[in-house]
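Kindly review this record before class:
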Amino acid sequence: MIIAAELHAGTVLCIEQQIYKVIEVESKAGAAKMSGVVKTKLVNIRTGRMWEPHFRPQEKLEDLELERRIMQFLFSDVDSCIFMRPDTYEQIEVPVAIVGDSRVFLESGMQVPIEFFDGEPISVVLPDVAEARVVNTAMPSHSSQDGAWKEAILDNGLSVRVPLFIAPGEIVRVDAKTGRYLERARTDRRRIA
């Protein structure tokens, strides 16, 4: 059991026989005789539906213990992503709804943690930031327009808005949850004297 005031993103809860993962938590203190409230944003693990319940800070909730295994991504199809345990070569299918939109950042051979509850995969833990190569965009421009953006297509098929100075072939860093451009990837360039 966990009290609502101790909730944090990533916690997995069981509420009315449904399994939810906490996406966001916001605690608001109460004034005078009013007690505070804990606002949450939850996602149902099986259906992918969002829910935004409020809890009293001292309300007890049932949190679940998860097993985390490192799995290797093999490939995906329309309905699922296929992962393999590197030590036993056991393969599992994880529904696309569980992986979410971030699946475009999965690369064959990539190892990621997968969380299991009662032997069932309920979450794929992807890095917060992913790198991808720009395959198509307008030629770079070094204009003085701060905040000017252009459309770019990445090698994983994702379309993102990038600054005008980004050229085709460059590697960019993208927020894996939102798909937003963060920065140009750092490359080690050695000067030849």
